[in-house]
Specification:
This is DUF6593 domain-containing protein. The protein is of the alpha+beta class. It contains 4 helices and 13 strands. The termini are far apart.
């Protein structure tokens, strides 16, 4: 007499599923407050990091990227603003080809030192005959990353990938016919958790890519 095999399937309970979801790394989702490429606050919706892109208060044609201590608010905007930027974007009144990018060392023995590189060397076209809106840069981790305008992904205005096409970050515009609430334009920058330490560099390079697009450089 042949034996009949029986199989039993075990499914995880809802609490186990919820625990797994909650323990998964959450991407940093920065809300774009104003929608202006060179003047906006970028706050992570989970309150892990607050960034600001703003014109330099003392120098024309210069935009700074700052790390902030708290979320954007109308009250915060009334307080005198005096912070050292993390990145300085000098667009230069002579033209885009003279633009520079400066990184301010915030910690360690070299704190306060500034390293400057021309925009054309920092953001390089991905190919000799490629379009201006597909460019690559080398981040502080020594790895190469690429920004592309509408890089084949539906709904994403800008996409950042590694050299092996692994998705790192993306900038999305507010979907049409969608209402906005509070201090937000509806646009957002998503940085995947593994690359959170590069958030300032990703925002700075995105700001430069949008500047290149706006000025047809």
């Amino acid at each position: 007499m042949s034996q009949v095999r029986t199989w039993s399937l075990t499914f995880p309970t809802p609490s186990v599923i919820f625990s797994r979801v909650m323990s998964a790394p959450l991407p940093y989702l920065f809300e774009d407050r104003t929608g202006h490429s060179t003047a906006s606050d970028w706050d992570d919706i989970y309150d892990r990091l607050y960034l600001r892109v703003a014109p330099c208060p003392t120098t024309l044609n210069v935009t700074n990227v700052y790390t902030m201590n708290q979320r954007a608010s109308r009250h915060r905007d009334t307080v005198p603003f005096d912070r050292t930027p993390s990145v300085i974007l000098d667009f230069n009144r002579k033209g885009g080809e003279y633009a520079t990018v400066s990184f301010v060392q915030k910690q360690g023995p070299r704190a306060g030192s500034v390293s400057t590189v021309p925009l054309s060397k920092y953001l390089r076209k991905t190919s000799m005959f490629g379009g201006s809106l597909s460019r690559k840069f080398t981040a502080s981790d020594g790895q190469e990353y690429r920004w592309a305008f509408r890089g084949g992904v539906s709904g994403r205005e800008w996409t950042c990938t590694r050299s092996d096409s692994y998705l790192v970050a993306h900038f999305d515009l507010k979907p049409p016919n969608t209402r906005t609430y509070g201090l937000s334009s509806g646009n957002s920058l998503t940085v995947y958790e593994h690359y959170a330490s590069l958030s300032i560099e990703l925002l700075a390079s995105l700001t430069l890519m949008r500047y290149i697009q706006e000025h047809n450089l």
